[in-house]
Amino acid sequence: MAGPDDAADIAQEAMIRVWRSLERGMVPDHPVAWLKTIVRRESFRQRNRSATASSLEEHFELDDRTAANRLDLLPLQVDVRRAVRSLTPQDRKLLALRYVDDLTQPAVASALGIPEGTAKVRLHRARGRLQQVLAEHEGGEHR
Question: What is the pLDDT of residues 106-127, one digit of tens each?
Fold first, then answer.
């Protein structure tokens, strides 16, 4: 899934995510599967970072349209950060466990000590609130 040059970075980032989850008291039911999932997702992240990272020379080779498209993404990134900050601490924690720590819904429920169905509903509502905040900022459009 990744090149041999990236393996050490992927393993290190995955272990940091594992450590952070364990520090919060998250104990997975199936540790090997949980670890494999974290490593797999980290390898995807690394591949995406490698694909989007570009050298200074590549920036000079960009045509005007490509440069403009990249610049168009900046407000969206800022809007998402602002929207996340507007959520309640509980919503931010749910979303962070699910999407930053890459935990599954059952693992999020376990980490928070709540039933899986409750975690699923709360995640759905938190995503909805996030979408609503972003839509309000864009004048009512949903992305």
Answer: 888 888 899 999 999 999 999 9
- Among residues 20, 10, 36, 8, the alpha carbon closest in space to that of 100 is found at 20
Question: What is the CB-side half-sphere exposure of residue 53 using CA atoms within 13 A?
Answer: 6
Percent helix, strand, coil in the chain, to 5, is 80, 0, 20
Q: Which two tokens stand for residue 47?
A: 């591949």
CB atoms near residue 38 (< 10 Å)? 22
Pair of tokens at residue 129: 């609130």
pTM: 0.49
Please give the tally of structural domains in the chain: 2
Residues 1 and 29 in one domain: yes
| Cα three-residue angle 11-24-20, rounded to 5 degrees | 20
Range of the domain at 25: 1-53
The answer on 83 and 21 residing in a single domain is no
For the chain, the C-alpha Rg in angstroms (whole number) is 18
